[in-house]
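Supplementary Note 3. Input sequence used for the single-chain structure prediction.
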Amino acid sequence: MMWKYTIQVNGMMCGMCESHVNDAVRKAFPVKKVTSSRGRNETTVFAETELDEESLCAAISAAGYDAVGIRKEHWEKRRLFGR
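The predicted structure, written as discrete structure tokens, is reproduced below.
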């Protein structure tokens, strides 16, 4: 089982902004996957262990963006049968 963190991030204006946020998270934590969407003002992080939410937001803020909210949930990859 993995953890999924969805962080509301303000200030991303372009693809490079998304990359900066993703890189900041990868440098601070051992994550499996991180994606950002400037259109949704959201960064999604998948990790095998629980992450410190305050430190996660701090890493994004240190990159120059506003991490204003975070949601954590258990996540399991679902397989579709027959594919």
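The chain has a mean pLDDT of 93. The radius of gyration is 13 Å.
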